[in-house]
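We emphasize that the prediction below concerns an isolated chain of 717 residues; any contacts that depend on oligomerization or on bound cofactors are therefore not represented. The input was used exactly as deposited, without trimming of termini.
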Amino acid sequence: MRRVVGVFLLIFLAGSLSAGKLDKAFEALQVYNYFKAKALFEKSYKKDTAGAGYGLSIIFLRQDNPFHEPDSAYKYVLTAEKSFARLDEKKKAKLFALGVDSMEIREQKEKVSLLFFEKSKRANNSVALNTFIKDHPWFKDMDEAIAFRNRVAYREATNENTWQSLQAFFTDYPEAKQAATARHKYDRLYYEYKTQSKKISAFKSFIKDYPMNPYVGEAQDEIYARSTTKESAKVYHNFIVQNPNNKNVKEAWKRVYMLSVTQNDPAQISAFLTNYPDYPNKNEILLNVELLNEDFLPFRNGNLWGYINDKGVEKIKAKFDWVEPFSEGLAMVGKGDFTGFINKSGKTIVPITYDDAGNFINGFAWVQKGDFLGLVNNHGQLVLPARYDNIGEMQNGLIRVQREGKYGYFNNDIQLKIAFRFDRAKPFEKGYAVVTEKGKQGLINQNGNYVLQPQFEWISFLNDSLLKLKIEGNYGLLNIKLDTLLPFEYQFIGELSEGKIMVAANDEYGFVNELGETVIDLKFTFSQMATSDNEFSNGYKGVRNSKGLFGLIDSTGDKIYPIMFEQVGAFNPDGLTAVMRYGKWGYANSNVKLKINYKYQFAGDFEFGLAKVKIKDKYGLINSDGKFVVPNEYDDMDDFAQNLLRVKKDGFIGLLNRNNELVLSAKYEQIEEITENLILLQLNQKQAYYNLTDNAFVFVEAGFNLQPPIEETVTEE
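Result of the prediction step, given as a token string:
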């Protein structure tokens, strides 16, 4: 850009030009004689508008004279530019000789605009900046001016922070880089404005009227939260029915299912499908029921464990370091040092991240992290964080939990129902729980209120309506209404059995009924040994004297067997009863006549016409004539599934039926009952499953060394 000094030099050199008013004006301007220059420019303005307007714009723009006036500089440069455009070439040439052309005028115009831009920037408001942009469309740095204007306007809109101010911004300046952010903030503020009442109806109206607003999802969440403040399956289902298009319907169905099916019980699931026929995932539920009704068995493949069904079909691939049997549809599994739970689809329900855990009982299982326990439900939710010292089982809708040495109770919804204040606590039974404070037991109800103050040494339930209590060394009996049935005068009170309770006082014992009424007088000598067998069985009970000898009485207290035996088995009025004398067992009939002599080390009760006995350190089965049906050649013998006998011989285990027919030879290290038909065999530390009904193996682990299951019948020697 040519400098003004250069312009004046040209004037000086143009000696051939006539020294008119315009020439003299520029000469005066060269020497900063602003008064003379201004006067001359004004006199020549009418005749030489382009040149004089240019000169006047320079004077009014400069700040080193008293005539500084930006508005006039702006006016004269525009008139100069407009007038110059109308001149013919001869006149333009004359002005060029004075240093005035279209380029010089444009440069002056830019200088004027720059001054106005700086002024509008200092004003720092969108009105001033918009005026500048409107009045100076030629400004070469217009992009900078617009960007600055946008920043200022956005700041003004956000400072006001109303949906109206933000809407005005992105409407007026749609190309601004802040427009998207402004629109986002507007959406938020407009959403809050339309739903300020926080009523469900307001959120519904907003969704209907503004379906494209990005906060429709939040409005749906608010409807969900406000519609389900009460945690019940009915409440969640009502939400589903009333809001079928809400994005939370899937989650609501999940809550309905979780609240309805608390134990993965097929009966609960069936009831759920009956109660909610509109449930959308019926096929998934039915598959779950099918799996729940199917037996899953742990199996090992190499060093990893998985599950097969009772047909031997692999259901869950062997990929765990160890597994436990399924309980309430979930199984504890381990990987490395950690444990979690899977369902019968093989899906991880509780993450395998815990140090230890317990099986699911009544829909809940404890889990351990470090030294502390937490609680998960059967849907895998951690409902109590791992910060407790002890967690019991959910019973009667309450679960006892210990924290920092004190016990309290949570309800089914895992809300703290009874505060942590007890030194010890038992599970709730029949709507009550026995708790201990300062070494004394009391009884609380499900609200945590004492119905019996903590003053007792012992409290226990005999049935739904009877309480046995001990205070200052003496026992008494109360009913659930806390009426005294037996005063605290007894040295012993036993358990309820066949409507009778053994009681002892003054070293004699008898029996009372559930009303505390005496039904058998206190006439039998009481000793501590008598407390070990204080219940009736099938209308009969063993009684013992001070010498430790046994007899039998009936429900009226009459003696059936005299007190002369060292021990007496369960009385069989229609057959033989095991009795012991002289250190050996024999069998007597109901008339106390010895039918099988005293010769056994052990004598069991007769079942199905046979009794297990031990003689010469070996077990066998005898009939009522005392003859061996199964010879006494086994180291151990116990009852097993399907009326079989599990026998042990030479350190190995097998199965017999009661006709002495071998079912499985005694060649196994272990035999366990899994179901009524299915058993687990172990051999060479490997396992197999065997179906007793089909007489067939359903699974054999590699290395089990399968043996023929059936061998020849053992005959009596």
